[in-house]
From TrEMBL:
UniProt xrefs under PROSITE patterns: CARBOXYLESTERASE_B_1 (PS00122), CARBOXYLESTERASE_B_2 (PS00941)
Family of this protein: Belongs to the type-B carboxylesterase/lipase family.
SUPFAM superfamilies: alpha/beta-Hydrolases
Location of the Carboxylesterase type B domain: 3-472
Encoding gene per record: lipT
Protein name: Carboxylic ester hydrolase
């Protein structure tokens, strides 16, 4: 297979052909660290793209792929993977998946895409991008005549990957003019952010945002303060922290990043310092504001969240504000009436269950409703809520929590992990839900709309697809909660003052 940069050789498996670890940009190492991605370096001969390459630098515990096995990590991580039907005719729709992980962890290795390709005749692409301090700190304020720091690096990586797709995907049987981007969690945030990124215009024609966390997109003043605090943390171990940004190892930079995360979470529970920054140029507007003002790219959109998003975090990843004390601190900068209205919309507050529901709705559901409402005014928009849970998920207290919809999207109920979450009586239902979700996602990729029966979301009808067994449709579910959240504008209202080093 010949592409713009050289010849690539993939592998055939069970009716599919895969190419793994193709570079879409030059390794962001050395002088390229903290710089916008540069074009990939071409090669001579045949490049064997048989196996997945490095994950972006991150805590090693997040790269486990087996007992005692870890995916290698390196700054040389800007690669992507392609899966296509072995026999294909005519250009096929392209689906580009952006993995989640709070912009601090994750890898494309986990999301193979084989089930989607088999189910629907598409070309599937998954990408890696820079994470954590190396990808999502805005250090541009520390640029000088001798050093340049670019911002929004992970976002720029995603745009570079889409540019690669536009140039090369036809060689794999894909249609460069029919590209659907989709992602979950931070990957969902990437999707809603790309909708508001001018550089991404024309690089995709449809978008699916699964459990987008719009709060991960950082206001400019926050981004500048995060960068200052990070440099102060480096100063504790390096005489010249600016030089250390280039001389320190990825591990050292990562440990400083963990310190930054701890300091920020002490002030704004659940807030993370890594995410696209609203800089006024590369990302001119917050995606919610862009949707509200009709300045998102007018492409069809599917957006939604899961019924009990926060249960995963309460049980496994303690990063969301799920205690009454943390919930109270979220409203310190708001009108007291707003706090009363929001907490009053949740029966039993301040019970643990109500606190979890508030946290999940604040991070995922309520801002996604705002994006659906704004974007739906100028482009076809479809909203869903994922309610399906197997009995094991219910019995263990997880329910339809964060990321469980990925089991259906990627056909994972039939894998070893997925089958461990299903009892014999659940397997038919799990397969029905998988067929429904994959059918709608694939129909959307082919036709710009899900299958018949799922109406557009508008401010007038607020039609939401409830993905469960069986599937159903509701108009304006959780109406009282939706109205209550309309007076709250996210973490931007929480003051950063109170002991963060570097605070002016």
């Amino acid at each position: 297979m010949t592409i713009a940069d050289g010849v690539v050789e993939g592998v055939s498996h069970a009716g599919l052909h895969s190419w793994r670890g193709i570079p879409y940009a030059a390794p962001p190492m050395g002088e390229r660290r903290f710089r916008a991605p540069e074009p990939a370096v071409g090669w001579s001969g045949v490049r064997h793209c048989h196996s997945f390459r490095n994950a972006a630098p991150q805590n090693p515990r997040y790269t486990t792929i087996g007992i005692g096995k870890h995916q290698p990590v390196s700054e040389d991580c800007l690669t992507l993977n392609v899966v296509a039907p072995e026999e294909r005719s005519g250009p096929l729709p392209v689906m580009v998946f952006i993995h989640g992980g709070a912009y601090i962890l994750g890898s494309s290795l986990v999301y193979r895409g084989d089930s989607l390709v088999r189910a629907g005749g598409v070309v599937y692409v998954s990408i890696n991008y820079r994470l954590g301090p190396l990808g999502y700190l805005d250090l541009s304020g520390f640029s000088s005549d001798t050093r340049t720091f670019d911002n929004n690096l992970g976002l720029r990586d995603q745009v570079a990957a889409l540019e690669w797709v536009h140039r090369n995907i036809a060689a794999f049987g894909g249609d460069p003019d029919n590209v659907t981007i989709f992602g979950e969690s931070a990957g969902g945030n990437a999707v809603t952010t790309l909708l508001a990124t001018p550089a991404a215009e024309g690089l995709f024609s449809k978008a699916i945002a699964q459990s987008s966390a719009p709060a991960l997109t950082v206001p400019n003043d926050w981004a500048q303060q995060f960068a200052k605090t990070y440099v102060e943390i480096l100063r504790e171990t390096h005489d010249d922290p600016i030089a250390a940004l280039h001389s320190a190892t990825p591990g050292e930079l990562g440990r400083a990043g963990q310190s930054l995360t701890r300091r920020i979470s002490d002030i704004a529970p659940g807030a993370l310092p890594y995410g696209p920054s609203v800089d006024g140029s590369y990302l001119p507007l917050d995606p919610i504001e862009a949707a509200r003002s009709g300045r998102t790219h007018p492409v069809p959109l599917i957006i939604g969240s899961n019924r009990v998003e926060a249960n995963l975090f309460a049980k496994v990843f303690d990063v969301l504000p799920t205690s009454p004390k943390e919930i109270e601190r979220l409203f310190v900068a708001t009108d007291p009436e707003v706090k009363t209205r929001v907490t009053g919309a949740y029966d039993g507050y301040p019970s643990a269950e109500a606190c979890r529901e508030i946290a999940g709705d604040m991070i995922f559901w309520a801002p996604s409703v705002q994006i659906a409402q704004g974007h739906g005014a100028h482009a076809p928009t479809y909203m869903y809520r994922y309610d399906y849970a197997t009995r094991i998920l219910d019995w263990t207290g997880f329910g339809a929590t964060h990321a469980t919809e990925l089991l259906a999207v990627f056909g994972a109920f039939d894998t070893r992990i997925g089958s461990a979450l299903t009892l014999a009586g659940d397997r038919r239902g799990a397969r029905r839900v998988t067929r429904q979700v994959q059918g709608d996602w694939l129909a959307f990729a082919h036709t710009s709309a899900p299958r018949p029966g799922w109406d557009r979301y508008t401010a007038d009808n607020r039609t939401v697809r409830i993905i469960d067994d069986p599937i159903r449709t509701e108009r304006d579910p959780s109406r009282d909660r939706r109205i209550a959240w309309e007076g709250f504008h996210g973490y931007s209202e929480v003051p950063l003052g109170g002991g963060v080093p570097g605070q002016e």
